[in-house]
Amino acid sequence: MTVDIPNTQQLHQWHNDFMALNSARLDSARSLLSSRQRLVLDALPLLFHLNHQQLPGYVDRDTPCGISHFQASTEQHQALQTLARGVQIPRGLNDQQILGVYLMGSLGSMAQSRSSDLDVWLCHHENLPEEQRQRLQQKCEKIERWAASQHVELHCFLMNLSDFRQGQSRSADGEDCGSSQHLLLLDEFYRSALWLAGAKPSWWLVPQQAERNAGPYWEQLLDQHLVHADQWLHFGDIHTIPAAEFIGAGLWQLNKGLSNPYKALLKLLLTRHYASQYPNIRPLCWDLKQRVHQGQTDVESCDAYLLMLQRVITQLEQEGNQQRVQLARRAFYYKARLPLSDLPNTQRNSWRARALSDLCRQWQWQAGDLIELDQRNSWSPVKVYKERNALISEMLSSYRFLAGFSQKHAPKIHIRPADMRLLGNRLYAAFDAKPGKIININPGIRQSLEQEKLTLRLSPRQVWQLIPGSWNKDPQDTEQILKQSPSLMELLYFAQYNGLLMPHTHIALYPQHNPLSQYELKELLQIVRNEVPQKADNHSLVHPPQPRYWRLFVNVGCDPQHHLSRRGMQKLSNRDDALGYSAARENLILTLDLLTVNSWGEWTIERFDGADAMLLCLQHLLGFLSLARANLTSGHLAGDEDNDHSPLSHQWGWPEISSHCHCASRASSINLRVRQLLQDVMQHFIEQPRSPYLIEASEHYYLLHSSRAGIQLHKAANSLELLKLLQQPQDFYAPCRLDDHALLHSPLRLIYQHARAGIWQLFYWRKGNKFFFYLLDDKGALLHQQWHDDEGIRRLVPIIRFLRQLDQRWLAQQGGNSNRSQARTLLLFEIRQQPHSFELQLIRRKLPPINELSSSFDLSAVVDEQHQTTLYCNNQEFSVWQFGDQLYHAVAEEVQNLRQQHGNYPCYLSDLTLSGHNQQVIDHLRAKQRIEKLLNQALLSLPPTPSSGNGD
Q1: Minimal CA–CA distance to 268: which of 408, 414, 393, 110?
Q2: Which of 13, 94, 178, 843 is the most interior residue, by most CB within 10 Å?
Q3: Where's the Adenylate cyclase class-I N-terminal domain (predicted)?
Q4: How far is Cα of residue 886 from the mean position of the Cα atoms in its chain?
Q5: Strand partners, 468
Q6: H/E stretch holding 833
């Protein structure tokens, strides 16, 4: 569309109107500032125009300075004399490196308050050398520190307009939005910027009809000498908002919402409104320019926040959700920071108070509504929590809308991956909801949530409830409950994280006869109050979260011997193991609460309860083995292993762990056991990560072992189930490590103490009329068999013969590829109980001579890949294809015929081959046992014949 070029008079009028609005905004801004704050505002242009050592911000004489077309106002002259009496402004500075100075944000608007910060855009020459730019940056930082001394929060942003027009920016750090947005930021600048000094925005002189062709339009103004190029700055054109910006802008506003949710909500809703207009977006700055070009220069008609509110409310009303409309209205009311029910006399007649009062009347808010809103700092934590949820829900809903919009319309997004990761992870840390995570319920809603009194109530369902103030004893009144959890520690840390706890906060317990004693609560609070929330730095946030330290709490509000404590009794025992106390083998560790504080500043409580609590907690902690190994590899060690009070496990590279127990019964011994177990298990898996670790608790056994999927936990309800776990073949040498309190009087402890790599060890033990046999193989796996005592020794010979034959064949098959050149070592031990003691001892026994290991005939088997068994008796083949289900019966008959006495006494395999080059001796012995069982059953089914009964 062709736009007529305005005449000089029209351009002059537009310029004058924008300057009139600018002047009115500055006057409005100054009216709300204290004398110190006004000094900062008035001095800002001078501090950049001059480079004088008596002025704040001086770096050296080579620092860039000088603002083009600068003419000091009366207020600025006065500010200069206040700061440095006698310093004059020189005329005609030759070196003018600063093109323009602007303020952006809420100053001079409905949203300004006494605590509003000043965001300064400092536009410098585009060809300024990097060394000069760094000096100018130092000057800005010094001016920021000086402003802070005057109680002004000032942020200076150096602007190279050439880079800015191309969308280049810094990282999303501090107050800089980084690459998250560009034209959305420019839209905000145009509608809210205050000109302080230097050249003015060329955008002022571009009529709305020419917005989409602003470049050619401006060139015509220059060609016709209607404007002078050096008096205007070109920040860029806004003919629409690109879809690529919306996801980054949403991320940025959500991050701002962590501390200022009301302001962030309004900007998110505006961004969402823009996205809903796509592709025919009308930027809000167009509305402002249209009003100014029509001659409206009063601050109320052209207020950026009122324009934004009008757009947002119109959109929400069209969508028909009144709750969202009311939330947006509350957000605007709080952003204005004008408590209409209690306004100071100095503000009652201001345009801001008048405009806000008019809005509240339109919204039909009553005096009681205003009082409730203005008493926000007295809201109960429960009400604050509900408001937080409403705000977060609406902000996340808007962000999800923007994310869906970007996915549909923007294959390439306008935000650097590093900024995306940083902003996204910061949001994840703040908003990700998961069981046990402590969240901030007060993101700038109320100044403080400190409570004089809190109540901890244990409900009939054994769930703890956190109640601000006193409990009104009405179980149906759930509105008084702030939070509830089966974990008391979660509630205490929730209270600490959210600032409810003060040094003098009184905490009442209900009911009074409570499993949690006042002594235990006092000890726990002492620990909890030492925990202070820490904000994660950007370096941590661009990496996955890692635990920084752990706090472990044992039996909180739980007496493991309550059935005795209630009668004033406690069981005493020489067996002081908290996992197997006394002859009854009681497990005294009933609950564990684990606080994890990670590198993103998140606090999470994991709760473990029941008989498996300790083991489940160990498994969880061992899931961070890779972190410990990485710290060890990098040489990052801490802690003093000779100090009993040093944090557990830190000396191995693990995050610090501390454990605490203050329950009514045996707290010290329980805590000591937990500490020792944590230390032993963690040290074991650092030093021997492949070897399983066995723990005995009560009458159960638990085996922790490492796998590709992480640390696995297997539970055995009795000794037989344990033996099944221990006989699993290993791919490498990994003998089981026994906890110091596990299997104290079992032969297994003695056997594993003698584990050695690369050899086979046989153990036998007589107990009563039973004979127990164990094989510990070259990789640490254990096979167990049990026989009647009268046949025990006799059955050892065939096993030894089988092992010898197996080893000889494997050695021959490997040839020169084997790591060993001779037969594997085979040792035999007898286990005996020492006289007058429960202790066991090992006695080395000689193996039978070679000639005693021979048999009258050769009996071997081969198991193929289909698990079909083929038997060979003196080289005669017996296959399932030949004999079907009569296979074992046929072999039994052949065996009986070969025997001199034709007896049907047991027979044993002398060799066995498994498919797939399997050389696991445990697998071979188990298959041997299965085949021999079937064969001997077949032998017994044959008619009885005379026999010597010595076996083959």
Answers
A1: 393
A2: 178
A3: 11-204
A4: 63
A5: 454
A6: strand 826-833
